[in-house]
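User: Predict the complex.
Assistant: Input components as received:
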Amino acid sequence: MVTEISKNNLIFLLSAIGLIALPHVKHIAPTVFAFFCLMLTWRFAGVWRPRWLPNKALLFVLTLAGIFLLYSQHQGILGRDAGTRLFMTALALKLLEIKQQRDLYLIVYLTFIVAASQFLYEQNIFMAVYILLTCGVLLATLISLNNTKQDNVLALKTAGVIIVQALPIAIALFMLFPRVEAPRWMVFKDPHQARSGLGDSMEPGSISRLGLSDERVFRVKFAGALPPKNQRYWRGPVLAYTDGKHWKQTQSRFADARRDKIKAQGRAYQYTIMLEPQDKNWVFALDMPTHFADDLSMNANYQLTTHKDPNRRTEYRMTSRLDYNTGEITPDEYRENLQLPKAPIDKIIALVQRLKGFDTAPETFIQALMQHFRQEDFHYTLMPPLMEDKPIETFLFEKRLGFCGHYASAFVYLMRVAHIPARVVTGYQGGEFNQVGKFLEIRQAHAHAWAEVWLQNRGWVRIDPTTAIAPERVEQNVDIEQQIASGAVSFIESDAAQALSWLGDVRQLWGSLDYSWQRWVINYNSANQARFLSSFGIETLRQMLYWLMAIVAFITALLSWLLLRGKNNNTDKVLIVYQRFCRKLGKIGLRRKPGEGAVDFACRIKRACPEHAPAVDVITGLFVKLRYGRHPTQNDWLKLKKQVALFKP
Amino acid sequence: MHTSIDRLLDSANQIILGKPRQIRLALCCLLARGHLLIEDIPGVGKTTLSHTLAKLLGLDYQRIQFTSDLLPADIIGASIFDPDKRQFSFHPGPIFNQMILADEINRSTPKAQSALLEAMEERQVTVEGTTYPLPAPFFVIATQNPAHQIGTFPLPESQLDRFLMRIELGYPDFTAERELLSGKARHTLIETLPTLLPQVQMEAIQHAVTQVHVAGSLLDYLQAIIVFTRTSTDYPSGLSPRAGLALLNAAKAWAFMDRRDAVLPEDVQAVLAAVAGHRLRSGSHDSEAIVAPVLEKVAIP
C-alpha cells in the first residue's frame, strides 16, 4: 500500500510540516521538540529507505515514549502548552504510520491545527505572514494529493489562488463574527515571563536600567493636535515614602470624598492609549487625566489603574488637560509628604539655609534650588557612580552625577527639609512620534522621574529638576546608543543619527504597521468590535449575523460569477437563447441530443412537425451564423432573440 | 466553383452507382489536399472510383499494382546505364503522375509500401542523391484488402496516419446492382468522361477551402472530440495533433462542398468516421462503428 503514495507528495508534506513546526522550538520543551524532530527525520529517511521505518512493535514503544515524555512534563493534556505538545507528539507519531491516502489527509489536518497553535504563543505580524505562507504549502500538498498529475508549481499556484479567494471571506468573518472572550484555559498567561518597567519603588539605578531598553510600553494616538513636547509627562506611580535610599508608594488611605475635585482648564487633549501587556494594573495618562473609561479608576495620587487583566494589550480612551489645580490636601497627606527617614545632617540643613529654604516663599526656594542645580557642577549621566550609602548626601555634595531619579529624589528631599510637601512621580516623558501612523510611541527608554510639590492655592505642581541640568533630556529624545558610547548624555543631536535617517523612517514605518496590526487585528475584541461595527450602524447580534451572511453570500456569488465569466464569451448569450428554443421544443418531446448539431436537429424537427419548418429554418440559420459564422451582426442577434421569443411549438 | 463540383459529383455517381456519400468523401479528401485509402474486398469498384475521379479532374493517372515482389525502384524509377550516352540516366517510375492508384497496397512488402508513403509525405523522391519533385497536384488513392485476407502486410499505424481518409465502399444495393448488371461496361464509360474540374479551378477550390471560417466554439467541439478519444477507454490511443488538423481540414472541405463559408459541428461529424476511423483502431474497418461513441457522447458545446 505504501507504494501508492508518491515520493513527491511525501516530500512536499514533510517539508511543510517541518516549516510549520519550526517556530514551536521557542515555545515547547526541548525534549518534546527533539522527539518531534527525530520522528520527522526518521520519516524523511523513510521516503528513500522504506525499510528503515519502524514496525508495529517499535511504533508502540515510540508511542509509549511519547506519552511518557508528555506526562513527565505536564501530568495532563489540559492547558495551552500541554495541548500544543500533545498535538505535536500525535503528529510526530502519525507520521510514522502512513499507510493509505487517508493517513495523509489526517496528517494535513493535524498540521493545520499545529499551525494554528502558533498563534497561542505569538500574534505578531511576522508570525501571521509566516503561517499563511506555510499553510499555502500545506494547501498545495492537499491539492497535489488529489491531483494525479505531479506539478508542484501548479499546485502552489492553485493554493495561492485559493488563499486569495478565501481572504475576503476571512476578513468578513473576522470583522463580523461575534467575538467571544477566550475561556480561562486559553488566556495567554505565562507566570515565568518577567517584564521590565517601572516598579513599585524607586532605588538608585532603577530607571537607568530602563533607559537602555528599547521595549515599547504604550502607544498614544491623539484625536487632534499633540501637546507641546515639554508637557508630555505620562503619569505613573507616585512615590511618597522614603527610607533615605528607596522611594516607595504609600498605601492610599484617603477617601475620595475628602479630596478636592481637580479643577482643570485649557485645551482638552483627547487620545487613545494602547498599553502593551504588563504585570501591573497601572495605566499611564497624560498629566492630568480628566475623563477616562469606566473600567479605570483614579487613586488618591491621581494615578489611573485598571480593573482589567493588564497582561493583555488593552486600549483606553481618555481626555487630559495640561492646566490643572488639585486643590487642598488632607492632613494625613500633608504629613506623609513631609516624611523623612531621620533628621537631616547639618550639611543639608546648611544648604537649605543658604538657599533661604526656611524663610522665603516655597516658589522662591524652588527657584533657588533649581538655580543651584544649574549653576553648580552637576552633570547628567545614565551611568552614575555607585552611591549605596547615604545616596542623597553623596549625590548632593560629592559625586554630583546622576539622572532623573537622583535629581528628583534629592529635590524632594530638600523640599521636605524645608517643610514643603513634596513627592516623587514616576512615569514616562516625551515619546517618539511616528510620522507614518501619526501616533506617539513610548518606550522604556522614555521612563522618567520628576517631583511634585504642593503649593497653597495651586495644589500639586509638577517640578522637573532634571530640566535644570539637562534641558535636552526633556525637550528632545536622548539617543541611547550615544549615551552608551560616551557614558554621558550628549547635548547635540548626532550627525550619525541624521545620516541614517532612512533607517529611522523604516523603523517608523514598521512601528506604524505593527501598531495597526495590534490595534485592528490582535486587539479586535468584543468591545472594539462593537464600537467599530456601530460606526456602520450595526448594533445587535442579529444585525451582525445578517450582515455576515449577506457579505459572505455576496462574496461567494461574486467569486462564482468571476469564475463562470471566465468561460463566458460573446457567443454564450446566443447559446442561451438557442437553449431557450430547445426547451420550448423539449415540451413537445423533441430533445436535442448532446452530440447533435443544430442543423441535424432542425432536420429532425422538420420531419416531426413540418408545420414549423420555416421558423425552425430561420432560427437555426441565425444560430449557426451567430455561433459559427464569419461575420455575425448585432442585427442577426436581435432577430434570433425575437424569433425564439415568437416561436411556439 | 460549386456548380463544377456538383456536376462532377453527378457524373461520378453515374459511373459508381449507389455510393454518393463515398464519392463525396473521396472528393472532399482531394479538395483538402489529402491522400485517400479505400479499404474493401476486391471487385466493389475501388479502381473504378479512382479512375473516374482522375478522369473528371483531368489528372495524369497511373495505376501501380502492388505485389509481394514489388521493389521501391518499380515505384519511383531507377537510374539505368545508357550505352549511347555512356552514362546513367534516371528513368522516372510510375509515381511521377498527378494521381496514383496504389492498388492493393497491403499485398506488397513494407519496404515497397514505405517508398510510396515517403513520396506521399514529402511530395518528392530522391534517387542517388538527386531530388526529383513530384507533379502538382499529387494524389495517392490506395486500395487495401481487409487485413484478414491471406498474404497481406497490414499498414502500420504511423503509415495509416498519412492518409487523410479511409473509406469503405461496400456492396451496392439491389437497384444499383441491377443497373450495373444491365448497363454498359464501366471502363468504356470512363473513357468518355470529360474533364469537369480543370487543374486551375481545382487549385482555386483548394485555396478557398483553407479560407473557410472556423469559429472558436467549433474548435471547442473539435478539441472536446480529441480529448474524448485520448481519455476514453474505448480506444487504445487517442487522436494525434496531426489527426486533429486532418479532421479540421476535411471538415473545412466538407463545409465548402456544402456551399458554406463556415464549418459547423455537422461537418466535423460527417467526416469524422472517414478521418478518424483508421487512426483510432487500425484493425477494424467499420469506421462508423468506431466513431459512434464519439458522436454520441461528446456534447456540442
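Chain A is about 50% helix and 15% strand.
Let me know if you want any component modeled separately.
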